[in-house]
Design goal:
5 helices; 175 residues; mainly alpha
């Protein structure tokens, strides 16, 4: 196990804490911002839902790569999954800054809202899990990386898959 100086890990931890708090707070605040005189970006939901689907596929492929001891492929797939999640977030916020939220009018509101609420809560929880696991891998702390990935992977996969499900359930009601 690689022993980086404790101060390096603490520096990362501070950044992880800041990002983990700032992202949900900024997203929530941006939901209250409406860009005047900007055309609605109604074309974005199917794109960012597809990005969620791609993220899910990348996560499964990354798991297969590491199980086959293909570390380089695993690393590249994980970096791409992180980039996809960031890309998703930018598009999601841009859409909601230019468009009204869509109301679910389907026959299964309890199911829809359960999936949506669990998706939102876990999308907040997954931020520090992903960042901590990434930093631990970068620092060569693979045993502690594996310990947190046991939680990060299923949560992130759930968030990615339920993002697609939420889109599919609400897509008939987009204006």
């Amino acid at each position: 196990m690689n022993n980086q100086p404790q101060s390096t890990e603490k520096k990362y931890q501070l950044s992880i804490n800041i990002v983990s708090i700032a992202v949900p707070v900024v997203v929530a605040l941006l939901f209250m911002v409406r860009l005047p005189n900007v055309e609605s970006l109604t074309f974005l939901p199917p794109i960012y839902a597809s990005v969620n689907g791609i993220t899910a596929i990348l996560l499964v492929l990354a798991l297969a790569a590491i199980k086959n001891r293909n570390i380089t492929l695993h690393e590249n797939l994980m970096k791409t999954a992180i980039a996809c999640s960031f890309f998703f977030l930018v598009m999601y916020v841009a859409y909601h800054m230019t468009s009204d939220s869509t109301k679910y009018l389907g026959e299964s509101p309890v199911v829809y809202y359960f999936i949506l609420i669990s998706h939102i809560i876990l999308s907040i929880i997954v931020i520090p899990l992903v960042l901590i696991s990434y930093v631990r891998a970068r620092l060569g702390k693979f045993e502690s990386h594996k310990k947190i990935v046991r939680y990060a992977f299923p949560v992130w996969l759930y968030v990615a898959v339920t993002g697609v499900i939420v889109y599919l359930m609400i897509s008939p009601y987009y204006i």
